[in-house]
Amino acid sequence: MKKKKLVVISHTEHYKSVEGLVIGLGSTVSEINFLADYWVEVVHVACFYESFAPKNSLPYTKSNINFVPIPPYGGKTIKSKFLILTKIPLIIKQVHKAIQGATEVQLRLPTSMGLFLLPLFAFVWSRKFVFWVKYAGNWNQKKGPLSYRLQKWFLVKNYTKCKVTINGFWPDQPSHCYSFENPCLTDEDIEKSKIYTENKNYNRPFVFCFVGRLDESKGMHHIVNALRQIPIHKIEKVHLVGDGIENIKYKKELAFLKDKIFFHGFLSKIEVHAILQKADFFLLPSASEGFPKVIAEAACYGVIPIVSDVGSISHYIDETNGFLCDLNRESYSEIIKSVLEISPDMLKEKATRLFPLAKKFTFTNYLHKLNIGIFDSLKK
User: Fold this and answer.
1) Which DSSP symbol is given to 218?
2) Do domains 3-183+362-379 and 187-358 have the same CATH topology?
3) Stretch 327-350: mean pLDDT, rounded?
4) Which residues pair with 239 in a beta bridge?
5) Tens digit of pLDDT for each residue in 20-67?
6) How far is CA 10 from CA 29, 38, 213, 226, in A?
7) Shortest CA distance to 128 belongs to which of 158, 103, 93?
8) What's the CATH code, domain 187-358?
9) Which listed residue, of 141, 260, 331, 353, carries a Cα 20 to 30 Å from 8's Cα?
10) Cα–Cα distance between 95 and 84 in angstroms, integer?
């Protein structure tokens, strides 16, 4: 039997397509499209931008999904950050209206509006619904933004008296904080990808890929330095998927790769998976992460991760199925150079051990964990 009404509150970017449809960030929209099969009504309260949509945006495909727009907020400057103060009344109004009659409500954090929505859910608004928080950031981040630290403190204290889903498995983890894999793959993705994984041989030259923002926080400077030190004959192609304000800078720095480098900008899931089907290594030397779902997508296609040891990445990736780098002690360039000397058979073995990771990040597994970890536990 379907549940009645799910409300999801997030800062997910939404736009209007050239056809006039509301479209949003593909990873979140795909998740909500999946969940809509299990509720009579799904409401997504999220940000709407009056600008062109990136290619990784998708439309809602189920008629029982309603999108409720709130004004976008945040930015790089102090002025833009403080502008949220003028938008708080409308955001509160839209959220409060949306949760009326809800049977389940999910608030996605960390985001600036969590600073005022968490106290409202904890102390002001009456709750006749199941309420849980999805904390998608780095749960173990030591020096994150002040707003993130305040939200985590509020959740650890459990003032909202709710379940919190987090990335990873941590010592002294509060009992109401539930380790969770956030979905990005369908059962069909898993089945289709097997043929690509089985047919990879990991012979030189290699195909490398990166998916994310093209900026220093995602480790682009480490990637540039590493690629400069790899003999050019060992590189077949380098695919960079994403965009950033320093895009032109990185294009100049990687021009030495000539026709081996591809700057794709944002791509749809189908286009990203087409690249992963042919790639050998996934590069992500980030300064901070929760758990990037794209690692699971790479695992689905046997793309071996060479990633930084941050967030909960080490809870899923180790020396048996990938390569972890402590950027405070190790050179990313040296690690990549050593990886390229490993035999194809050993790389194939790592990829084989990597593949089961992908199954943890399916929508089917996500729904199962919601039922046993969130809904069933809250009935007791």
Assistant:
1) G
2) yes
3) 95
4) 209, 262
5) 999 999 999 999 999 999 999 999 999 999 999 999 999 999 999 999
6) 11, 20, 20, 36
7) 103
8) 3.40.50.2000
9) 141
10) 15
Q: How far apart are CA 10 and CA 13, in angstroms?
A: 9
For 131, half-sphere exposure in the C-beta direction (CA atoms, 13 angstrom radius) is 21
Q: How far is the C-alpha of 297 from the C-alpha of 234, rounded, in Å?
A: 24
What digits encode the pLDDT tens for the residues 246-267?
999 999 999 999 999 999 999 9
Phi–psi pair at 6, nearest 5 degrees:
-105, 130
What is d(CA 17, CA 22) in angstroms, rounded to the nearest whole number? 6
Host H or E run for residue 295: helix 293-300
The model's pTM: 0.92
**C-beta separation of 277 from 299 below 8 A:** no
Closest CA to 47 of 36, 61, 57: 57
Distance CA 304, CA 120 (A): 44
Amino acid at 21: L
Quick count: other Cβ atoms within 10 Å of Cβ 363? Answer: 19
Q: In whole angstroms, how far apart are CA 133 and each of 66, 106, 180?
A: 20, 6, 12
By three-state DSSP, how is residue 147 classified? helix
- In the predicted model, what is the mean pLDDT of residues 58-81? 86
Fold held by 3-183+362-379: Rossmann fold (3.40.50)
CB 165 within 8 A of CB 180: yes
pLDDT beyond 70 at 293: yes
Measure the CA angle with vertex 145, ends 142 and 151; round to 5°: 85
Domain spans in the chain, listed from the N-terminal domain onward: 3-183+362-379, 187-358
- Give per-residue pLDDT as tens, 135-167: 999 999 888 899 999 999 999 999 999 999 999
To which residue do tokens 């794209």 refer?
Answer: 294
